[in-house]
Design goal:
This protein has 254 residues and is α/β, with parallel strands linked by helices. The protein has a single domain, classed as Rossmann fold, CATH 3.40.50.720. Helix content is 46%, strand content 14%. The chain contains eight helices and seven strands, in the order βαβαβαβαβαβαααβ. Strands 3-2-1-4-5-6-7 form a seven-stranded parallel sheet, with helices on both faces. The longest helix is centred in the middle third of the chain and has 29 residues. 46% of the residues are buried.
Length: 254
């Protein structure tokens, strides 16, 4: 068997109706996992699940909508997953929010709270919900999608960067507490990836050209560029990797 084999593992991927989350869900399914496609809109989730099932076989993916800002919906997400597919083996915390673009001076309290709630607290809730069954089995993989924004300052997305820096520590703390249970908790810090979520950062041709010129790989990322790291961290190949956040950024931070 391949060290990356995920046959019959049950995975929840939040924010997986598009972008990085969808690419990760497709990557996990390609290795044999059964994946739960989850975002706010059920119809969008069902479309992605249907396409994965058409490619990889029936019942490889199911659609369960949930908002990361609503704890009862996340509780229901785990309950429905367990009833439909079984206990969760892999959790990918990918969904996030960034409702503000500009100087920290101008951000409203409610905007800052939304960023912290959706990018940090919701990940904390998700991990809490995954842990009991993982501890019972003595095995599990949790991956939090952070950002290289958590490694440096920004004059335009500062609050988002603060939340992503907090995710680094969330990973470290949960890893320290749960390694004795056989559970691995890691993160991925992508650089700029061509997604709708990050459109404000790549949609200007001149700004994009300047960004890509500064990258060692001379291009911004595609969602599929992040999926491989998520598959690795979810698989037996990473059985001795925990508490780490892997930077995948085309060389932006070197």
């Amino acid at each position: 068997m391949s060290a990356f084999d995920l046959t019959d593992k049950v995975a929840i991927v939040t924010g997986s109706s598009r972008g990085i989350g969808r690419a990760i869900a497709e990557g996990l399914a390609a290795q044999g996992a059964r994946v739960v496609i989850s975002s706010r809109k059920q119809d969008a989730c069902e479309q992605v699940a249907a396409e994965i099932n058409a490619t990889h076989g029936e019942r490889r993916a199911v659609a369960i909508a949930a908002s990361i800002s609503e704890k009862p919906q996340l509780e229901d997400l785990f309950a429905q997953t367990k009833a439909t597919l079984g206990p969760v083996d892999i959790l990918i915390c990918n969904a996030a929010s960034n409702p503000y673009f500009g100087s920290m001076d101008g951000i409203a309290d409610e905007q800052f709270r939304k960023i912290l709630d959706n990018n940090v607290i919701s990940n904390h809730w998700l991990v809490q919900l995954a842990l009991p069954d993982m501890r019972d089995r003595g095995d599990g993989a949790i991956v939090v999608i952070s950002s290289i924004g958590g490694l440096r300052a920004s004059t335009t997305i500062g609050a988002y960067c603060i939340s992503k820096a907090a995710d680094f520590q969330l990973v470290r703390n949960y890893a320290a507490e749960n390694g004795k249970h056989g559970i691995r908790v890691n993160g991925i810090a992508p650089g700029l990836v061509k997604t709708d979520f990050a459109k404000a950062l790549w949609d200007n041709p001149e700004a994009l050209a300047a960004t890509e010129k500064a990258l060692a790989m001379r291009r911004i990322g595609a969602p599929e560029d992040i999926a491989g790291a998520a598959v690795y961290l979810s698989s037996p190949a990473a059985r001795w990797t925990t508490g780490q956040t892997i930077v995948v950024d085309g060389g932006a931070t070197i």
